[in-house]
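This section describes the prediction task in plain terms. A model, or a person checking by hand, is given the sequence of a single protein chain and must write out its three-dimensional structure as a string of tokens. No templates, partner chains or ligands are provided. The sample shown here is typical of the held-out split.
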Amino acid sequence: MNKTRCPGQDTRFWRPGDIFSVTCASCGTEVEFFKDEATRRCTACGARLQNPRLSMGCAQWCEHAKECLGFDPKQEGARDEADDRSVADRIISTIKNEFGVGSRVAEETEKAYANALKLLKTVTADPGVVVPAVLLMLADSDAREEAALPHSSAGGNKLANVKRIMKDAGVKPGAADDIFSIINAYRSGGTIESPEFRVVKNSYTGGH
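The expected answer:
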């Protein structure tokens, strides 16, 4: 008995742009994606890439969606989690492209990002705010010149690059203001009483 293939998965029904390339944030290799693939591994370095343009279509209601996507889009928070991963991948790719894979900015950012992911497992904080804030902490003009860790002289008017990358990466408008405030406060030596700010701060200082 022949099975009828889902039209969403049948490439005969696809349009130009449904197959595209994503730049690996780890090594810069172009990795081909199909629109309905949640993740793929980079053929050059083996890093796991998230699909920044994931199209779920009928997966919103299909009982086999988890088998296709790797997560259940009907499960509360699943789509947000996938979106957060895609935003992070875009920011990481931009940082490495603009500063260089082996630059101090990229290395310090990657180290802080790893710390943030560990802290988020033990602290209740919004990863949609924490992760972009950590990844963009050094992406302003002062950081570009000196790769300085926080508490430099950077002020709000020096963070245009941060705003640009946030917009290009697809950071949600509701989170963008919080992210910008955290970066601005931390880099100017200030503080904000929120779990998100504490996680960002501890990601760079090694605190708990």
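For orientation: Residues 79-208 form one domain.
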